[in-house]
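#structure-requests
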Amino acid sequence: METELEHILTNYNKAAMISYIAAHPDSFNELIEYAISDKQPYSWRASWLLWSCMQKNDQRLHSYINQLIDAIPSKNDEQQRELFIILQKMELNEKSEGILFNICANVWEKIHKKPSVRFNAFKLITKIAKRYPELSNEIEHLIQEQYLDSLSPGVRKSILQMSNSLIKKID
């Protein structure tokens, strides 16, 4: 039997979903649980909705940070992308950043993955690398031609701009 939130996630447009979550704040934790679960089609929709319903560094998500990060490797491309977007909006501790950096680098290096997933992984890589200048060598490795070939010219240009400004800052 479909729950009320499951019905909302599959039958409403995004604006109506956001309104529902705003009107039912008790459903926010349920939304997080779906976002980290493997209950499709609800899971990727929940993670897609979550980043539109949260605030920057949302306190309601802090106790779920490790679960969000740990969930990424086992998710499909669409859900990974949405989890990356959620985590881009959060402030993480050093340990979480280290784990997330490695996950993002692994996703980035998989050139068969959807460009939007890889792009959002790279955005997190650069966000983390800004705090840790010693990662500049990693960034230089990650922008080798083999990782850029499968990207569109626009995405490629964005990646190079992000990495070049970061590498220049570090040098």
